[in-house]
Amino acid sequence: MDFEFLTKIKVFKGIDAEDLQKLFDWLGYDIRQYSKGDTILMAGDKVSSMGIVLAGSANIESNDVWGNKSIFDNVASGQVFAEVYACANDEELMVDVVANESCKIVFLKMSKLFDSEEYTAHYQDKFASNLLKIMSLKNLNLSRKIYHVSSKSIRGRIVSYLSYLSRKLESKIIEIPYNRQQLSDYLCVDRSALSNELSKMQKEGLIKYNKNKFEIISEYDFEI
């Protein structure tokens, strides 16, 4: 386990490598490898461990009985998932977690985190505080996705998403974490319709794109 790497991610901010190893030993953990397309967690599962991506990435997905898919988020290296379910008692997952590429995951058990009598070191409190902040940010990300898909038009959804990333990165050049199918799933639109709209926007001189790299060329009429 590379504890030096883990000290650099948000959920363990302010905890040094030595204390982090103590935290992992106290809570208990398990490391697993997955190939692209593997289901890491499935809707309906009950989990007691939080997942942390050590390498690669995973998608948080929802699939209905007709085979329609919606992507809620992409979890990259250094990010966490299933933390809310791991902290809730006996709640079933509402989503799937699927490997977006070959990835390495560490599952950190969470049961002891809620036993105040077990708290004997500052790093335990620090981890709990960091985790609360992460959960708050996840709620904001979900609200942001709802905002992106609130527009009735495909162009509106594209513009909302690209505008957010442009502001976040402070750049007109954007690399998104999704391929075309995944982007259509994230924005809850048909893939062909999405491709057609992107092509129109490029012909109109609003954007340029190549695979998952986008550049905002003109802000003229670049509105929802």
Secondary structure layout:
Layout: H1 3-6, H2 17-27, E1 29-34, E2 39-41, E3 49-55, E4 58-63, E5 69-75, E6 80-81, H3 83-87, E7 96-99, E8 103-109, H4 122-148, H5 154-169, E9 173-175, H6 180-186, H7 191-203, E10 207-210, E11 213-216
Antiparallel strand pairs: 1-8, 2-7, 3-6, 3-8, 4-5, 4-7, 9-11, 10-11
Radius of gyration, taken over Cα atoms and rounded to an integer in Å: 19 Å
Mean pLDDT: 90
Order of strands across the main sheet: 1-8-3-6
Question: What proportion strand?
Answer: 15-25%
Beta strand count: 11
Query: What structural class do the secondary elements suggest?
Result: alpha+beta
Through-space gap between termini: 46 Å
User: What would the principal axes of the Cα set say about the shape?
Assistant: elongated
SSE order? HHEEEEEEHEEHHEHHEE
Largest sheet: 4 strands, antiparallel
Any low-confidence stretches, pLDDT <50, length ≥5? Answer: none
- What percentage of residues falls in helices of 4 or more residues? 25-40%
Count of DSSP H/I helices: 7
